[in-house]
Write a structure and sequence with these properties.
Elements (H helix, E strand, L loop, with lengths): L12 H25 L14 E5 L4 E5 L4 E9 L2 E11 L5 E8 L9 H13 L3 E10 L4 E9 L4 E10 L2 E10 L6 H8 L2 E2 L7
Antiparallel strand pairs: 1-2, 2-10, 3-4, 4-5, 5-9, 6-7, 7-8, 8-9
Helix pairs in contact: 1-2
Length: about 200
């Protein structure tokens, strides 16, 4: 049984959760991009704000964020080349974080190599904590290969992560928080709400 502190008694918990998410997503994206080069051989109280369907046109996805997401980006330097990691995030006062990150690979990912790339992303995740469960699954109506991971990291933070690719674009859908929040219906519903949409590039 893991012991964690009450996030409301620890004002740094929210910052730590979000910081861990950001660090984790960069490790995951970098590790997945590197792998792509290789040859193919307790219940949380109900939130006041209801989750609303958020549409990211450049990102090409929709998801039910429990609030207006903050947007940021950072440059990734990988063995495969440079890539921009786009981050959409919402933080709650309970110390929970909801995120969708996406980045385009600097190299083309062949379909036969997709599974290896996804597994490489999972390997990147495992370097930041202890994997509780890992599941090979199918995503969306087209049954695209995907990975679902539950991981425990430091400070009593548990992550629930969906990793999926669309052509050469990697998506990471994450929810995390203290006290096993990632196992609640609210956390699971957030991940399940993620869907692809038409990519509309900004002018």
């Amino acid at each position: 049984m893991r012991t964690v502190s009450d996030p409301m008694e620890n004002p740094m918990m929210i910052r730590k959760t979000t910081g861990l998410l950001a660090a984790l997503c960069m490790v995951l994206a970098c590790h997945a991009a590197t792998t792509a080069q290789e040859p193919n051989t307790k219940q949380e109280p109900k939130a006041k704000a209801k989750a609303k369907k958020y549409v990211d046109k450049p990102g090409g996805f929709t998801v039910a964020f429990p609030g207006k997401p903050k947007q940021s980006e950072t440059e990734l330097k990988t063995a495969a080349g440079k890539s921009i990691l786009n981050i959409n995030s919402v933080e709650s006062k309970e110390g929970n974080a909801f995120m969708v990150m996406w980045n385009d690979f600097p190299i083309e990912v062949e379909e036969d190599n997709l599974g290896k790339v996804l597994d490489g992303a999972v390997d990147g995740v495992s370097k930041k904590g202890e994997i509780v469960t890992k599941k090979n699954t199918k995503f969306g109506p087209d049954k695209i290969p995907a990975r679902e991971v539950v991981m425990d990291a430091k400070e009593g933070i548990r992550f629930r992560i969906l990793i999926v690719m669309r052509e050469s674009r990697l998506y990471q859908v994450m929810v995390a928080g203290p006290d096993e929040f990632a196992d609640t219906d609210k956390a699971k519903d957030f991940v399940k709400s993620f869907e692809f949409s038409k990519i509309i590039k900004e002018d």
